[in-house]
Write a structure and sequence with these properties.
- 21% of the residues lie in helices and 21% in strands.
- The protein has two helices and four strands; from the N terminus they run βαββαβ.
- It has a single domain (2-62), classed as Alpha-Beta Plaits (2-Layer Sandwich), CATH 3.30.70.20.
- It is α+β, with helices and mostly antiparallel strands and 66 residues long.
- Residues 1-29 form the 4Fe-4S ferredoxin-type domain.
- It comes from Streptomyces roseicoloratus.
- Ferredoxins are iron-sulfur proteins that transfer electrons in a wide variety of metabolic reactions.
- InterPro entries: 3Fe4S_ferredoxin, 4Fe4S_Fe-S-bd, Fe-S_cluster_ET.
């Protein structure tokens, strides 16, 4: 799974960090970011729910097949 946040779109609502704190956090300016090392190995329904909960749809979750 590949997870990314469009930093040009993110408004820092923090919903991602509330829904899935093991994968998402907020930087020093309050904007969403993926916890280092979790962008490609995290999965599960909470990550998808965090993406859906983003009010500006800044989070992209892609399935990666190897």
């Amino acid at each position: 799974m590949r997870i990314s946040i469009d930093t040009d779109v993110c408004i820092g609502a923090g919903q991602c960090a509330l829904v899935s704190p093991e994968v998402f956090t907020q930087d020093d300016d309050g904007f969403g970011t993926v916890v280092p090392g979790r962008a490609s190995d995290a999965g599960g329904p909470l990550v998808r729910e965090a993406a859906r909960s983003c009010p500006v749809r800044a989070i992209t979750v892609e399935e990666v097949t190897a």
